[in-house]
Amino acid sequence: MNTSATAWPFSSSQGESNYEAALRRYPGQAIVDLAAMRDNMRHLVEVVGGPRSSTAVMGVVKADAYGHGLIPSALAALAGGATWLGTAQSHEALALRKAGIGPDRCHILTWVYNGTKAPFDELITNDIDVSLGSLAGIDAVAAAARTLGKTARVHVKVDTGFGRNGFTEEGFGAALGKLVPLAKEGVLHIVGQWSHLAVADAPNVPEFVASTDRQIEHFNTFTARMEQAGIAPEIRHLANTAATLTRPAIHFELTRPGIALYGYEADQAMGEPADFQLTPAMTLQAQLATVKHVTAGHGISYGRTYLTDEATSTAIVPLGYADGIHRSASGFDAVGARHTDKEGGPVRVMTAQGTKVFHVSGRVCMDQFILDLHGDAERLGVHEGDTVRLFGPGRGERCGEPTADDWARTADTISYEIFTCLRNRIPRLYLHAQDVLSPADLALLDPTSLL
Ligand SMILES: *Cc1c(COP(=O)(O)O)cnc(C)c1O
Questions:
Q1: Half-sphere exposure of residue 179, counting CA atoms within 13 Å on the CB side?
Q2: For 99-114, how does the pLDDT look when each residue is reduced to its tens digit (9 = 90+)?
Q3: Taking the CB of the first residue and of the last residue of the chain, which one, N or C, has fewer CB atoms within 10 A?
Q4: Is residue 19 part of a domain?
């Protein structure tokens, strides 16, 4: 048995028994290192000039902090020096405040809502900044602010070429027509002007660099129009992870990195996490189910897309697409029904012959997938119950240390989707919470989730 391969730095015997309880509850675990997350944020704060610079950093914690867990991740980001938090959906912004992260600690911005039904009254009451990118949104936020008798803090979203939220240059006259009187009256406080970049993650593609330059030009044009109208924004923000790391000229007063907080660069073409001094925070591991011998030519999983090419052993990893393991990370071989070789997602297994990486063999199923061990399990020392690693911090699959980027490549997607698809039936367990968080913050977390 090689369970010692998964010896985690438990903070206490309670941490260890939380771990054992999680293994009994579910055969896969996402282990999130809060010290890595804090250090990633610390680094991002340094990148924009340090804690005393005029540029602040927002930890983007939308979508349950990219699947890492909203509250623990938000607290780690704050411990690393973030002074803003951002969520797309408003319920997550409210959850942060309800957890006890008050306006004395950080600003919170939220930007995705249905303007006709969103809880603007609750957002304003809880001192949450709201993005305004549509005329209906302006009307609704203004109405809520009037009813409450409380000024709403807003950030004007402009579409500089991303083609998603925000006012276009053509539509901006009408927006200013509404915003100017509301700002003068004190119904709205125009805190910020902001926009989002489409291709900042391709700093080596001239065409994309030029397109980002055009977005920046448009951004400045919008600012000039706001100034002329007498509602100059106090702060401007445009930079996501990619631009925070590679475009210091557009850090302005605030940057909004998301994926870097979790330890990844925005695009594999930019390089690897280590090139940017980032450490992946999440490890996804599982405990093997059935390990058995099969003969040569044995079909593996639905559709017979993978046939064993020799007598071998297989092992079941009890996670599937209902856990968020992408079906597109399935692996095929040329003798299978697809008549094509396609490597599946990588899994690191500790064997008697050292660490080996095997790949998803055949189709990913709902709750499980299968690994061809290309050898005899007994000789390899691989057994049911062994803990294997799908991804974690490391130098990538070619060094025997698969990352979420490797899974993204085999599934034809991006690390963001690998993380956010992971379902919450997989326990999230937190490392180093005691080192990173104050006792008061620690008390906000589920004690059974702490290692
Ligand atoms: C998600 C998001 C970010 C963060 O993007 P990353 O590429 O993860 O850094 C920043 N701004 C907005 C508006 C976003 O939606």
A1: 32
A2: 999 999 999 999 999 8
A3: N
A4: no
Q: What is the pTM of this model?
A: 0.96
Q: Are residues 138 and 229 in the same domain?
A: yes
Residues 71 and 185 in one domain: yes
Cα(449)–Cα(429) distance, integer angstroms = 5
> Measured in whole angstroms, how far is the alpha carbon of residue 112 from the centre of its chain?
17
225 Cα to the center of ligand 1, angstroms? 25
CATH assignment at residue 323? 2.40.37.10
Ligand 1 proximal residues by C-beta, below 6 Å = 60, 62, 88, 196, 240-241, 256-259, 266
Q: Is residue 15 part of a domain?
A: no
Pair (120, 253) in one structural domain: yes
Residues 148-159: what's their mean pLDDT? 98
Give the position, in ligand 1's atom list, of the atom nearest the Cα of 66: 8
We report the CATH number of the domain holding residue 221 as 3.20.20.10
Q: What pLDDT, on the 0 to 100 scale, is given for residue 6?
A: 58
Compute the distance from residue 447 Cα to the ligand 1 centre, in Å: 30
Q: What is the pLDDT of residue 3?
A: 46
Query: With contact defined as beta carbons under 8 Å apart, do 58 and 255 qualify?
Result: yes
414 and 408 in contact (C-beta within 8 Å)? yes
Active-site choice (117, 178, 302, 430):
302
Q: Is residue 238 included in any domain, yes or no?
A: yes
253 with 380, same domain? Answer: no
DSSP state of 437: S
d(CA 297, CA 373): 14
Report which residue type is found at 235. Answer: I
Task: Please indicate whether residue 62 is annotated as part of the active site.
Answer: yes
Write out the residue range of the structural domain in which residue 395 sits: 282-426
**Tens digits of residue pLDDT in 74-94:** 999 999 999 999 999 999 999
Place of tokens 């402009």: 158
Ligand 1 pocket test: which of 48, 196, 268, 417 has the largest number of ligand atoms within 8 Å of its C-beta? Answer: 196
List, for residues 15-50, the tens digit of each pLDDT value.
Answer: 999 999 999 999 999 999 999 999 999 999 999 999
In a domain, 2, yes or no: no
Q: How confident is the model at residue 416 (pLDDT cuts 50, 70, 90)?
A: very high
Taking residues 179-186, report their average pLDDT: 98
CA distance linking residue 297 with residue 15, whole number of Å: 45
Count of structural domains, the chain = 2
If asked whether residues 362 and 398 sit together in one domain, one would say yes
302 is catalytic: yes
Q: Which amino acid is at 91?
A: H
Rounded to an integer, the average pLDDT of 430-438 is 98
Q: Is residue 46 domain-shared with residue 83, that is, in the same domain?
A: yes
| Centre of ligand 1 from the C-alpha of residue 58, in Å | 10
